[in-house]
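If you are new to this repository, start here. Below is one unmodified record pulled from the training split, so you can see the exact layout before writing a loader.
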Amino acid sequence: MLDMPPAHSTGGTDYYVPYVQHLWEPSYVPPMRNDVIAERLAGQGHDILFEHEMVKLLHADGKVTGAVFSTKDGYKQVNAKNTLLATGGYAANPVMMRALQPAAVGCCTASSFNPTCTGDGIRAGLWAGASKDIDAAPMIFDRGAVAPGVDAGYEGDGENSVFRGNIFQENIGSQPFMKVNRHGQRFANESTPYDFICFAANYQPGGVWCQVYDSNMMDDMLRFETVGCSRVVPYIEMGMTFDEYTAMSQESGILMKADTLEELADLLGFAGQDKDNFLAEVEKYNGFYDNQVDEDFGKEAYRLSAIRQAPFYGCWFGGSLLTTIDGLRINENCQVLDPELNVIEGLYAAGDVSGSFFSGNYPEYIVGVACGRSSVEGRHVAKLLAGAVE
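And here is the target side for that same chain:
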């Protein structure tokens, strides 16, 4: 009989989480990716045209033959045997977001999308006869820190709409600490992929939630051992402090700190019955930690934490919209398809402008799948058109 490995501390299975290098040491400034690509293309005799805004694709008889661009010198037509759309999604287009993804808009307080992702490529493809994914699919992280009283959703109308918060990546928002609504009550299991708590907040006042923890938070996060870009264990082990980890919300005065829970409740905007609910919820949550059982939402025992050691901290959050991942339907070679799923000759799509990959949301537990998809598709089309792929 085979010897079975001991039970994993998290109740799951050991697997390797690769180290993610988001930052570079100041002593080393690497060459920018696009600069490297531009230099290589120029060396091969290819032109790179900047300040060209696509107006429309040229298409006739089911075939795309290039595009028309608006430039500083007027309109310019570029004819091409093959055209690859790599223009991103439509997260920066409030009109499209309101029309296609009202649930995402209703729980987001901030944005971290590229401002050029306005859906131009998707719309151009549709006008050229392409089909699009039926179901909308956003990529939302639970890190849009805001001040007490700020609602999720857009402020303003039409194309000028903006989210109300300006902190889009306060990473501690993805940690599974206790989260409550404006009535001071928990409303979901906090130990879930990033966007779960966001969409659950759609059914709560203001579309936002408050996260609360005590001075033991760094030790708690070591035990939580989250995955993906929320995984902070290596940084803590290298000596990162709590102040460094929450720098944005502290500098903005959005992260609240108090020596008592009663004072913290006041700073977070809880009053009357809502304050009583909040204090009772903390007491009950401490009991769940003591008994290592979440009787309300079934959160794993190792993801529970006590809220007893002063000082206490709290911060309000909404979702941070990164991108959209529903796009033009494609086949295995990234060729764009019409509504009957026939290939539109000469038209390809890669990255967030393309669809046929995600459904409904971004699966956060499959670390790197979004950037991996974009990189692989772009490379595949380039090799295909260069004749390197059959």
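Two things worth knowing about this chain: The two ends are 48 Å apart (CA to CA). The first strand starts at residue 53 and ends at 60.
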